[in-house]
Amino acid sequence: MCELTKNEFLAKLRLKLHGLPREEIESIIRDYENYFSEKEKSSLSETEILTELPSPEQVASTIKGEQNSFQQHEKSSSSKIIIAIALIFFNLTIVLGPVLGIGGAIIGLFVAAISLTLSPLLVIVKFILGERILFELFLSFIFSGVGLLLLPLLVKGSSLYVRTIERYTRWNIRQVQGEEK
Hints:
Layout (H helix, E strand, L loop, with lengths): L5 H11 L5 H20 L4 H7 L3 H74 L4 H44 L4
Helix pairs in contact: 1-2, 1-4, 4-5
């Protein structure tokens, strides 16, 4: 580093900072000029000051790296917002209808299966009250059997439905957060 002079250091730094906004480059150069002035006031020579400093390439690389990191964070935040808005729109317009429809169908089937299972109780009450039609009683036992067969299938189907919604929700969250998997 000792082979450079102050002016060469600043000129090289200015070249290495190419690509940054002009105002930012000027501000950085002014900061380094002030640094040189302060150190010269404390009776350090130009050569000693230059040996304390990293190379112009390292300084520019550090500054550009910090700016790129900030820009990537800024892009990342804006892309997350765009993805979130797109997913909200998609979920409200396309996914919500079928999810509510399937959920309603599952609830309806549960109500039907429970009603079928309990149908012999209603027929027994009717049988006690005076209408003694045995065909209805036997038919209600058949319906009760169908209801009892449907209930385990509905429990399994509804748990699959809930797990699928949970997985889809986690996938939405991962998309917004920008995770790969």
